[in-house]
Request: fold
Amino acid sequence: MGVDFIRKRGFEAVGKPAASNPEEQSMLQFLNADALTRKVIAIIGDFQKLDIKNVMIYCNSLSAAIDLELVKHECSAVNIVTPLQVYRNLASRYRRLVVWAANGRCLQTIEKILYENNPAIQIIGVSLLPVIVAIENLERPETIVKKFDLADLVFKGFNPEGLVLGCTHLPYLKEKLEEIFSAPVIDPAEEMLRDPVFAG
Reply:
């Protein structure tokens, strides 16, 4: 999905997943984050051998689970962009957000970044791994929205200023979500492309 996203916006891209499916990804993130960190370092090392200088860790939950500082230290010759950088900027622009993430570990990291950068922000957060699995299975967006009752999920009574798609699978539903919600639907992947690494 990340490679498709990048290519559709005019960049060349190659990609390599850190897990074969969302369930494996979640188990690695919760139970073996050290091994996952080493795996990411090895993947970036393979990219370096291909003379690739810019790396986007497209996945929110992967970015949240690994030791990102160690990855940046071990792969210092490469520019690394992650969704986590986006949340610092969002915190200064919004007062009330709903955050949807793939799993609780990712949600915790996103909320922590938002609170660190705006202690007054109000957040409702939800983890949605079954929705991510449905997206992987290429169920139709309208089917997923109806099946998981996403139209009513945590919006009533809260009046948020935005819905943050805290998993890079969720933009698959963005068009349908924009039909339902009056608040802006925020895709961090789009914000990542504004990083200076991708300028010019």
